[in-house]
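User: Please predict the structure of the protein below. I'd like the answer in structure-token form so I can feed it into my own downstream comparison script.

Assistant: Understood. Taking the following sequence of 640 residues as input:
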Amino acid sequence: MIPDEDVERVRDAADIVAIIGEHVRLKRVGAVFRGPCPFHQGTNNNFSVLPHGGYTCFVCGEKGNVFTFVQKRLGLTFVEAVKYVGEKCGVEVRDVSRQREGPDPREPFWEINATAASWFREMLWTDERGAMAREYLASRGISRETADAFELGYAPRELGLMRAYLNNLGWDDDRLLHAGLLAKRADEEEPRPRFRDRLTIAILDAASHHVAFGGRLLGPGEPKYLNSSESDVFHKGKTLYNLNRARPAMRREERAILVEGYFDVVRMVDAGLEPVVAPMGTALTEGQAELLRRHAKTVFIAYDSDGPGQKATFRAADVLLAQGVAVRVVTMPDGDDPDTFVRANGREAMEKLIAGALDVFDRKVQLLERGGWFNDLQRKRRALDSLLPTIRAASDPLTREMYLVRAAEAAKVDRGVLARELDAGASRRSRTAAPPPGATVRRSRDVDEDAPTPPPGAIASGPYRSVVEASSSERDLVRVMLLHRALADMVIEGVGRLSENESDRPDWFADDDGDDHARTPTGLRDPAYRAIYDALLDAEASAQGGELLTFLGDRLEPWVVRLAEEMLGTAESLMNPQATMDGALRRLRERSMRDGLAELDRITPIAMGEQKDRLIAEKQRLNNELRHMGATGWKGYRRP
């Protein structure tokens, strides 16, 4: 047999018009294709084929999808038909030789979640505990009809209600834990509901199976939004909220509208905008982008237009461009998101914004031009740094070439210079090491619901090993601040001097590796040492030892606090703190100067005439200063 997910992939990728067109003379008539029916040997154009849909004969009544057509026309079995269509559209089909015995093993989890969704709805509408949730929906202008359509509910604060209800229906705690409805910490004997005192939002997969929940906190606390944990039926990176409802409209309209949150989707669909989906409160993944590509040729991104919204927009756009999807950016008015805008202005106003959406690259260039980023050489270099990742992301060669020409025109630089850098794979890489995947250094108040685990190399699994150049000097400065509080102000002053020459960037700029450090000082680049340093800026000068660790514990992730604790235990090795501080600042100054030389190397190719001569002279000055400091000049310097 063929796995269901493979059948779905083939169906999504198949061009039914092209496949049927090999057997029937089809002509476009409006939004459909018409031709003579091959089943009753008709001569009139009574046979209709809907792109991304099925076929129908209005005379003999034959109808079906791409698989049924191939089965009936060529006399194939279903498995043979799926393989045939898969070969036509380039999708590999796995053939599982042994039939699966019994029902799909995921069915119990779909059933548990569907039952829980029904119980949450009952709590919302019929139980006094749901009064606050009902008031919240009313305050957002969401009717009961809309809430029921999206299966909104309420998870009460009480610990045992849902558990007892589902236990009585035959599902034990192990199954509820596996489904993600209960959670159990290592230090607790009894499991607890994952969702408590939250408005619940049912999450369905593309086939309309209940796979997970989102939860919106109604009272104070964090995180505001919480998703189900990963399970056998729920994978956040491969799920789009509302895809099951949006698919027909996405195929019909050949577009998808990507928004950030659950209530953006609810509001827009309620207003009549159907092809709307949202990721699971996280950055758009390749898996989610592939889902969008299967169903729509163009994706309109309608995120907030503030700095974080723009960052998220352009990161999502690059992921989509890599899938060959056309990406357009909807510019929301300041202070609005799709939810608030549609509620205040209605569907027609939103459609006007969508109609005025710009190609993502044009939107980037527009923002750079408005900010004056092409007016001087250094800012122009940074502007190009922010454009090159999007050019690289475009998988379509023609799109990439158009973006390249557009960037050269906007920056008034030679296209060949940009092309050579693009072909060489040169890009602006962050010299600040990004934390390992899954790690965070500060306590988050965002929607990410899963507690981070210490990263590889963190203090939990051995000595912390930074990959940042001169990180030992950064560690020394943080140690001085921790162990000798009287010198903290001198460290801060020295780091501040190192940071004075940091060039600004567009507030939405992020490097290729996704690390956003637009407001990060150049002085400290290791994320852990920088997090401790930033926290110590607010610490009392008199704070020492355990008091200092308690202060850091409220602001930093546990593995970073343990790193600080480990440094506090090395007082005996810091025999001359003043000399240690001076040496560390000197080494970081050398690092900063070498970075300046690297920046000059990057800028010089786009300069001309006297401007280029001045850059070469500045490069010579920096090399001389480095030699005067006793450091090796740029050309002799080797990075570890």
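That's the full token string. Residues 426-439, 444-461, 510-521, 632-640 have pLDDT under 50 and may be disordered.
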